[in-house]
Amino acid sequence: MRVEEAIGRQIARLRAERRMSLTELGEALGRHLDKPWSRQAVHQAERGQRSFTAAELTALALALDTSIPVLFRAEDARIELPAGAVSPEDYRGILLNREPDMPLDGVEELIIALHDIGEVLSRPALARLARIGRVADQVAGPES
């Protein structure tokens, strides 16, 4: 996967989570850039069909209420660069801004853990189990 595709997937995911339309995101970007993006421009970005400037990445992070490193996340995929691919582990290390032999600090570990927990909790099967658990609690009533 190319870096642009990884960024595009994150833009699409974050936009959907925030229940923004393509047009709404384009207008939000316009508040930080010289002009808004068209819905076609946002769609192209989500499909990984464009490169991004530093200003655009900053505007995207602001408009989507996230951080720039989050925009670069790739789920266990090799990232293709012009000279070859980067392993998922190396790519993740780059996003964490650390040396290969340096341990993660607590904040970065917490961010990764929270992201992973969010991914698990968003699974439909888990949501159904949570609803079943709530109904079971209601049926059982208060404990004496």
TrEMBL record:
Record-linked InterPro entries: Cro/C1-type_HTH, Lambda_DNA-bd_dom_sf
Source taxon at top rank: Bacteria
Stretches assigned to the HTH cro/C1-type domain: 11-71
Gene Ontology MF annotations: DNA binding
Name of the featured protein: Helix-turn-helix domain-containing protein
